[in-house]
Design goal:
Strand content: under 5%
Distance between the termini: 87 Å
Oligomer: single chain
Number of domains: 1
Largest sheet: none
Helix content: over 70%
Order of helices and strands: HH
């Protein structure tokens, strides 16, 4: 009887180990997919922020030339009243 129990437990442990191995593979695959997605999003965002940064710099230069606050220029351009 002890041999049967040992064989049964060994079989169960083997099945559990296989399931864990499969889960590890799925998790690793998911991690790679998420990392790639994050990288893709960063690549999409980078040029947008770069363009926005350039626009803000242009406003700051314009302020220096005109002596006006960039926020006031933005409000003026987009129709929002000054505070």
């Amino acid at each position: 009887m002890d041999q049967e129990l040992i064989a049964y437990l060994e079989s169960n442990f083997a099945q559990i180990s296989e399931r864990f191995a499969k889960q590890d593979e799925k998790i690793e695959s998911f991690r790679k997919e998420v990392a790639q997605d994050i990288d893709d999003v960063r690549k999409l965002i980078r040029p947008i922020y770069s363009a926005l940064d350039q626009r803000v710099r242009n406003l700051e230069i314009r302020k220096d030339l005109q002596g006006r606050d960039p926020i006031d220029i933005i409000r003026e351009r987009f129709g929002k009243p000054s505070e």
